[in-house]
Amino acid sequence: MLFSQDINISEALQTNALSMTLMDEKTRYSLRIKPKDLAAFKKASGLKLPAKIGQSIRTSAHSYLCLGPDEWIVITANENRNNLREIFVNMTAKFTYSYVDVSHRNIGFVLSGEQVENAINIGCPLDLSLDTFPIGKVTRTVFENAPIMVLRTGTTEFQLECWRSFAPYICGLFDRFAMDL
Amino acid sequence: MFEVHCPYCNEKRPEIEFAYAGEAHIVRETKADELTDQEWAEFLFYRDNKRGDHHERWWHQHGCNMFFNAVRNTLTDKFVMTYKMGVKRPTKTQIKAAKNGK
Amino acid sequence: MANNKAPYRTAGRGNDGSKTINFTFDGKAYQGVQGDTLASALLANGVHLMGRSFKYHRPRGVLGAGSEEPNALVTLDRGKGRVTPNIRATVLEIFEGLVTRSQNAWPNLKTDIGAFNNIFSAFFPAGFYNKTFMWPKSFWDKVYEPIIRNMAGLGPAPSEPDADVYASVYGHCETLIVGAGPAGIAAALTAAKSGGRIILVDENPVLGGSLLSVPNDKIDGLEISKWLANSIRTLQKMRNVKLMTRTTAIGYYHDNFIGLAERITDHIPNITPGVSREKLHRIRAGKVILAQGAIERPLVFNGNDRPGVMLASAAQTFQSRYGVAVGNAAILFTSHDSGYAAVFDLADANIRIPIVVDVRDEIPKDIRAQAKQRGIEIASGASISKTHGSTRINGVEIYSPSTGAKRKVNCDALLMCGGWTPSLHLWSHSKSTIKWDDEIAAYVPDMPNENAVCAGACNGDFGLLAALKGGNKAAGGRKTYKVTARNFGAGTTFVSLPSYIDTSKQKAFVDFQNDATQKDINLAVREGFASIEHVKRYTTIGMATDQGKTSNLNAMQIASNAVNKTVEQVGLTTFRPPYTPTTYGTFAGYRTGDLFEVERKTPMDGWAQEHGAVYEPVGIWRRARYFPKPGEDMDAAVARECKATRDSLGIFDASTLGKIEVVGPDAAKFMNLMYTNPWAQLGEGRCRYGLMLREDGYIYDDGVVGRLAEDRFHVTTTTGGAPRVFRHMEDYLQTEFPHLDVWLTSTTEQWAVIALNGPSARKLIEPFVENIDLSPEKFPHMAVREGTICGVETRLFRVSFSGELGFEINVPAHYGRAVWETLFEAGKKYAITPYGTETMHVLRAEKGFIIVGQDTDGTVTPGDAGMEWAVSKKKKDFVGRRSLKRPDLVASGRKQLVGLLTENPKTVLEEGAQIVADPNQSIPMDMIGHVTSSYWSESLGHSIAMALVMYGFDKEGEDIYIPIEGNTHKAKIVSPMFYDPKGERLNVV
Ligand SMILES: [Zn+2]
Fold first, then answer.
1. Which homologous superfamily is A12-179 in?
2. Do B65 and A71 touch (CB under 8 A)?
3. Considering the entire predicted model, what is its pTM?
4. Fewer CB atoms near the end CB (10 Å): N or C, chain B?
């Protein structure tokens, strides 16, 4: 079956000032674990879940993003999907927790370039300077009328995710921004 | 657009990430069947609508997804303090201290 | 200036004079120089008449030289969709080819027919419109309003959609400094050393503020221009400093959140398509330093609005900054020392000063000496009682109250100076307090409500040295400056200037833009308006686009005098954002057109578009409403889609249904609390219709819930209800039931949902489904299975919202379209027919299924909807349970949901139509209910409707009436289960 995110990124968003690329098919799981179980869960599962809201850890295989006091998103390449699901199924015997497949709920973008902070700030009210939003920080927030999640992956690089039907709106705003560059 | 200090994120965040969720410290009646209609009506509908320091709930909808409590002055529209769900209603002294701390 | 031949052009500093700019005003061609505003360029050409006033159509020239200008409003015409009215000529930068028009005059500025309003001005006192045009009511639309609209008002609103685009952005800084005059620049130089992010904004195209108007002063031994250039260069070099010109701080909001409106293209001759015209910066600042300066106050005297009468500081600015003489012979009328600095500068530029009229008896010696040195005569203790001229002043009548003597002196400009008003607009937006300062007769800042401080003239600290020191101190510095500048001096406030003419016969304007006079204020007070807020609304003073920047304090002083109170007692009107008029486009920013609001589309939306779908908005989703074939209207398309579905097979995109995954060992317990139905006994792989109430007992949402495992429920909600249901559940879970081990995850967008309905549904999917036994015995109605379809993992529901055999195929969203297309292709042999929301509505109404929000409206209980069956009698608790026993919810006479069959089977009632029991009752009739859903049923061959009717259940079989515009329809109350009441069609094998 054809995998289609049905998103076109315009050429205006392929410059050094601002480049936007669509992430390909990923596996995403929403995890809910009681904070008191976290250490044991990490040990038993081998998953590198960060402890504090806003933190993220990236390993060669997975991205672990802590979004709430008991909430994580794990993002991984599709080839790790079965492996990851097996871990989750195994953990159900040991822990009272929740895992839910949200792979296709989100569409992910990588934004980079020297204008990347300004670009995200056209709709996102957070202070994205490196001091207050360092590499590795992740949070849900808003982008004008769209709820989004932002993760800083580099000095001038961010990963931005949104629910799939909000993606064209977000691309449209970046497109308009690029016309002013 | 004001900023709200989310006690879970432990950060000041912009107002548009939050949603107001009504007066705080109104505990849902567990023995509702034993209440008179008047008592039930008071639980359901009666609110202080206070002029001054108001205890209220907020939801960090576009953030950590947590509901929390706040004291906000309805005259100045300034937040005095925010605290996690389950923490006891702050006393007048604690509210005063929070005001001075700012 | 060298190469510009405009008659009043002298030497200036703000423009370089090197480049000639051609522009037109009211069709006539003029030349200005690079750096001119429209006002300075017109004045250079000797043009003072720039507009007609709002109410009386009096000829008006410029009053000021900056953004406070109330008079010189023009329309900027940049072609189709780019016509902007009410632009102040004093801030409009000219560019090659600029086209501008005057406003509010017909047929032209010089001979304006509307000026008869001026002759009959005695009939247009304050409150005239409110009083006169009250009666008869019918005259308002047809007579009064068109006349008023024609005669009064400012420039016409644009008639074309805005051709420009706009931008908006959030920003952050440690220190935001508003105003780049001496105070602002001193503050920026000091604050920048901290290393924090600094933003310095100024509404002018160049930095410098009042420094641009005082050429002869020195700072630290440097000429002003040199000091300014050095300072700007220093700031430009610092990476933590952002300098913003052509940017107005328009509003100051909570927690140091400031709106900055940046004008990007208005001064550029050629607009590049797609480049934003203006940009709204939404800045969160750690600290705000307001250095907005002060605005000179006009004097209120008879004839003070004649073209050629202007603020002394404006004349000084036109002279020193733009190199434009405001006339050949300028008289100063003043009550403040600072006015002299202006005329001395003019005199030094060889403009004749026939006389200075000073209301005060005592004038400082040094000023007298300087005047004498320049040969300028001073008439002290004198006043101006009249001005002469029509569209330009040509003389004044000087009146000496002590002797009663009157004397006429000729001039072509009259400069006035009534003291200074600190600009407290942004300070006041922030709800910081102000206090009255008797010495300067003005309000000054008092207590801050945010981390903010005022510096320089807006703090009441006048003069160059005070501004520099104030700015430095505001940013935490302790620098001293050596300044050679003229003393700013002092003044006296005169509420009423001496005159031999009775005030009721004077045309002494207070608010130039709204044409309100001293007389109007006195009238308002006489008529009993004592509060300044009421005086403001009655006289409209301060309510025009300039918000009374030049008029508020004069108005308050006149009003307080009239009621025998101090200005403080009378109080101050409220300052409101924006500081200066701001385009709608700036506020909209990027959010126009397609980006105005999110439009959510399903994964199959593109397929629907290719197949000719007509859409409808459902919340912010767009959904296919029907799929017309060539020549079909909606009714024909829907009839065909319904029939095809009931005959064989329909395919429908149900992806927008809200979905929430409820996971955890206490999932069933939680479901028991959130829904009226019982969940504990629901087996794995089974589904149940769930009904959700609010705590007040009214229906909140509904949807089918599948139990995937002991600890996992797949909950569906209505399309529009998804966000509120998620919030409702999270709220209860976190705050009332935190002891439950259960978690919620929104999965609405994880799944694309393909609904197949009709007798052929099973036959179609059978070949594509793996790992699920589809036989009716193994997969009964209201069941859910996990497996694969077309090789893609699926949650397959056997449910029906149509009464036919139905499946809802959930597949991961980004495979949705591919699976849909595969099934559609294979379905052709079953005459598969795509249908939209309209057919879905008809099919469900034929079965009497409700739509929450259509057949319920937030005041409908399960009992009212005939859904007691969905409410568990055994459960001890669920949200809304106690309320179902509230006296008003168990009272008789509630509106109940019933079916209606019209007497004429072809009549399709209007949804929302009111229902009566007796069609012959006189108006007002007793309305006993209303129609909630109404459709043509192709399957049944007649119309069907659902309605909420008082005592509806008891009235089954009775007739009721629906009167609609002279046509009363008769209908019979029936059960809403119109089609296949026994549900046999679900069991097709
Ligand atoms: Zn939070």
1. Probable tRNA modification gtpase trme; domain 1 (3.30.1360.120)
2. yes
3. 0.94
4. C
